[in-house]
Design brief:
Cytidine Deaminase, domain 2, MGS-like_dom, single chain, 20% strand, IMP cyclohydrolase activity, 18 helices, 6-stranded mixed β-sheet, 3 domains, alpha/beta, binds the ligand NC(=O)c1ncn([C@@H]2O[C@H](COP(=O)(O)O)[C@@H](O)[C@H]2O)c1NC=O, EC 2.1.2.3, multifunctional enzyme, hydrolase
């Protein structure tokens, strides 16, 4: 036979007071005694409902602006205890054993929409007493009914006069309550994680425990290789102007490598305000060019290294135009295009090559400073992203010869690119166009020799070009190699113990040399 539960004492503490008057009235009509926190008591009393204030019950006032209202052993004994068993234990201590708790929490999620709320204000909306009451009641669901949704008031009233709130009903209400607490905590957790990330960025305060919050965006066709499964997760809140927030307008399913390359291409092209095109293969820019128009930039970047551009990932900092579209559909093998939204006429042309993957970026110049994660077996490395912008005032002219106006423009152009090329990186630039890139070599001299080979093989005119090196030139050998092709200016961080020897060699060849004092390794 089902045990009969008579509801006698009810604790009510609700932030959302909708329908509470009607509910409380019906309870009192069924000989139920009510016990409430300050605001709830006031509301009930104003409607003529008899209620005992919990602070009177425990003989302790609500303090600290409501931070402490119900956190009292007498209240928790009344929630966690069983009147049949524990009455003797608390003999003479005026413990009221509650048969039902009706609670809803401070509206933390709703307050999040209030962008002006500072952290201190948000913290005040973390409900402490409410979830504690509910958690205690859930633990004692054998003896207590737990209500967290006004929509359950009527359900419970149907049973209350018959005193047949079954164990199963209480269990289901406890599950609802636990879900409510858990969702509430998830929202707070998300908020705290966002603070965590901001703190890391602002204070370089790397936490003991690292929580990250990434949401699955899409399944990828495969990982780095076909036998590896893969998908893309994106940070929350979404980073605007990034590859993660891009929208795929057409083309086959993206792969892991497509996204990596598109990210490098996009981040690199974002460095430039003038029409610029960046072509990337295997994580490295193969060519970059800035021109008067985006079409010219594309043509010039393509010509700079048309061999490497085959099957490349191309990013533009302007919408692609009809000329680019025609050129691509006629005779170019392109894997991915990253562009700002383009015209419908361009769309119609690109639709003729439906396999080309096109990613649309709505906003290029996001102000975010991001964190950079790299995975190692069993751990992750965390660092600030290399967002160091150029500050010419920190640069030092160390050679006898000074760069001329065009060389100055070219070294700034090159220095923006070099941080996107894997180390050791040497790049040659002339007239705002890369003419050879030596990437990812284990020795710097090999990177320089590679750049020389590429420049020669592609019939580039290196005479009067500039050389940018992502880290210091450790020996003068690089200068000798560069001089062979007529390099007229070198930009590098400086900082080698052989700096003077390197400078002397530059002077010997009448090469201008600038030290940036900033290094841009990329691994
Ligand atoms: N601090 C406490 O001891 C405490 N006990 C209950 N509350 C919350 O206070 C609210 C009701 O307060 P009032 O009845 O004063 O309007 C409810 O949302 C309840 O979850 C508390 N507030 C915050 O934690």
């Amino acid at each position: 036979m089902q045990k009969i539960y008579k509801i006698k004492n009810v604790l009510i503490s609700v932030y959302d007071k909708s329908n509470i008057i009607e509910f409380a009235k019906k309870l009192t009509q069924n000989d139920v005694s009510l016990f409430s926190t300050g605001g709830t008591s006031k509301k009930l009393r104003m409607s003529g409902i008899k209620v005992t204030e919990l602070s009177d019950l425990v003989n302790f006032p609500e303090i600290m602006n409501g931070r402490i209202k119900t956190l009292h052993p007498k209240i928790y004994a009344g929630i966690l205890g069983n009147s049949n068993i524990d009455s003797k234990l608390f003999y003479g201590q005026d413990i009221i054993f509650f048969d039902m708790v009706v609670v809803n929490f401070y509206p933390f999620q709703k307050m999040l929409t209030n962008k002006n709320f500072k952290i201190e204000k948000m913290l005040e909306y973390i409900d402490i007493g409410g979830p504690s009451i509910i958690r205690a009641a859930i633990k004692n669901y054998n003896n207590i009914v737990t209500i967290v949704h006004p929509s359950d008031y009527n359900t419970i009233l149907k049973y209350i006069d018959k005193s047949n709130i079954t164990l199963n009903t209480r269990l289901n209400l406890a599950i609802k309550a636990l879900t409510y607490i858990s969702n509430y905590d998830k929202v707070i957790l998300k908020y705290f994680k966002s603070l965590n990330e901001n703190n890391i960025i602002k204070n370089k305060n790397f936490p003991e425990l690292l929580h990250t919050y990434y949401v699955k965006k899409q399944q990828l066709i495969y990982g780095e290789n076909q036998h590896q499964k893969s998908c893309l997760y994106v940070r929350h809140p979404i980073l605007r102007g990034s590859i993660s927030s891009s929208f795929q307008a057409q083309g086959k399913t993206l792969s892991f490598n497509n996204i990596l390359d598109a990210d490098t291409a996009l981040e690199c092209v974002k460095e430039f305000k003038e029409p610029t095109c960046v072509i990337v293969k295997h994580g490295n820019p193969c060519s970059v060019s800035t021109e008067e128009s985006i079409f010219q930039a594309y043509q010039s970047a393509y010509e700079a290294d048309s061999i490497s551009a085959f099957g490349g990932v191309i990013a533009f900092n302007n919408p692609i135009d009809i000329n680019i579209a025609n050129m691509i559909i006629e005779n170019r093998f392109v894997e991915v295009i990253v562009t700002l939204p383009y015209d419908s006429s361009v769309e119609r042309v690109m639709n003729q090559k439906p396999n080309v993957k096109i990613l649309i970026i709505k906003n290029l110049y996001s102000k975010w400073r991001e964190l950079n994660f790299k995975y190692v077996s069993g751990g992750i490395l965390l660092q600030e992203s290399d967002r160091k912008t150029i500050n010419i005032n920190q640069w030092k002219l160390v050679s006898t010869k000074s760069p001329n106006k065009q060389e100055m423009i070219d070294i700034i152009f090159a220095w923006k690119i070099v941080k996107f090329v894997k180390s050791n990186a040497i790049i040659y630039v002339k007239n705002c166009k890369t003419i050879a890139i030596g990437a990812g070599q284990m020795s710097r001299i090999d990177a320089t020799i590679l750049a020389n080979i590429k420049a020669k093989n592609r019939n580039q005119d290196v005479n009067g070009a500039i050389l940018a090196s992502d880290a210091f030139l450790p020996f003068s050998d690089n200068v000798h190699e560069a001089a062979k092709l007529g390099i007229s200016c070198i930009i590098q961080p400086g900082g080698s113990i052989r700096d003077q020897e390197v400078i002397d060699t530059a002077n010997k060849y009448n090469i201008a040399m600038i030290f940036t004092t900033i290094r841009h390794f990329r691994h």
